[in-house]
Write a structure and sequence with these properties.
Blueprint lengths: L2 E5 L2 E4 L4 E8 L7 E7 L6 E6 L5 E3 L7 E6 L4 E6 L8 E8 L14 E2 L3 E6 L1
Parallel strand pairs: 2-11
Antiparallel strand pairs: 1-3, 3-8, 4-5, 4-9, 5-6, 7-8, 9-10, 9-11
């Protein structure tokens, strides 16, 4: 069974850092598109960063220069390094994948494999 499990969330003060991990199982997820998304209370889920099978990366404008997405093919794991965190980064963060999908990474609504989410809270 294909599965994604996130970890690494927590509470941090503004300006701090966190590293999220997303361990995939069931298929070679890191060979295809994966991404990080977030949803704050009362807001729609939004794309944070994606990386496709060729390693092409996209970032939301709000996180460019602060967040870095990466993957470890040997561990079949996706990461999100978050630096210079702001209060507006507070949200539930989700890992998602487009199993066997070809590049480029699809629109948010086309991801059909999601993790359970990990909470990130940034206090000012």
């Amino acid at each position: 069974q294909d599965k994604l499990v996130e970890s690494g969330g927590g509470s941090v003060q503004a300006g701090g850092s966190l590293r999220l991990s997303c361990a995939a199982s069931g298929y070679r997820a890191t060979d295809y598109c994966m991404g990080w998304f977030r949803q704050a209370p009362g807001k729609e889920r939004e794309r944070v960063a994606t990386i496709d099978g060729y390693g092409t990366i996209t970032y939301a404008d709000s996180v460019k220069g602060r967040f870095t997405i990466s993957k470890d093919r040997a561990e079949n794991t996706l990461y999100l390094q978050m630096n210079s965190l702001k209060s507006e980064d507070t949200a539930m963060y989700y890992c998602a994948a487009d199993p066997y999908g070809l590049p480029p990474c699809p629109d948010i609504y086309e991801y059909n494999l999601w993790g359970q989410g990990t909470q990130v809270t940034v206090s000012s």
